[in-house]
Amino acid sequence: MISIVIPTYNRAGHLKNLYFKLDEAMIHMGESYELILVDDASKDDTAEVIREICKMSRQVKGVILTYNVGQQNATLAGIRHASHEVVVTLDDDLKYDPATINQLLDVYNQGYDVVYGIVKEVKRKKIRRLGTAVKEMLLFLLCKKPKEVQLTSYKVMGGSILDHIRSDAHEKVYLSARLLQKTNNIINVEVASNKEHLATTYSLRQLIRLTFTIVKYYGPKLTHQNHQKDMNKRTQYVIKELV
């Protein structure tokens, strides 16, 4: 069995379609699963839609957050509520087709600690490409990321990697930087792009914030020091409701 964690924000009109496509893919794969939907304090009716989906299926859990903490912290909240030894993290915009999860699982079962799904990107703005390049370079320099590996939000991981991620006490987290502290037994799997991909809500500003998070918390000399300081800081998230 696997746990699938999807953080979501302002997707009330889309979540049921996402759930149906995911469920269809899992049935086709013959894979037992649980789905954890994390509402990052949406301004629309996302939380109510999650409640409705949970009523439709016992396989679905809802984690409703009190205030907005960002994609990474919201994903961490979901991972901490996952019941199974293998976790898949996925975006809420269908950039990655749920039907490709089996491709990642097949490679993961070959003995890798983490498998990232990637798609061939359409041409992006230069400033966005530059921001991504800076982030990747920092992860290479500070966290020893393998040069050939691309990091995305779509990944499969399990075992001690999950324990390491769950124990992250930083106020702001970046899950890929955290797991790179534990392993470099990582590989990419290229999957087909999804034609139903929605517009992303991930902005350049968020990418810049993520870059600062990497520098502040995940450098080899700063990790332990900042980890201890953050134990007494503002919590990573506050759960309003478990569904």
Automatic annotation (TrEMBL):
Keywords: Cell membrane, Glycosyltransferase, Lipopolysaccharide biosynthesis, Membrane, Transferase, Transmembrane, Transmembrane helix. GO terms for biological process: lipopolysaccharide biosynthetic process. InterPro entries: Glyco_trans_2-like (IPR001173), Glycosyltransferase_2 (IPR050256), Nucleotide-diphossugar_trans (IPR029044). One of its GO terms (molecular function) is undecaprenyl-phosphate 4-deoxy-4-formamido-L-arabinose transferase activity. It comes from the Bacteria. This is Glycosyltransferase 2-like domain-containing protein. SUPFAM superfamilies: Nucleotide-diphospho-sugar transferases. It holds the Pfam family Glycos_transf_2. Residues 3-124 form the Glycosyltransferase 2-like domain. One of its GO terms (cellular component) is plasma membrane.
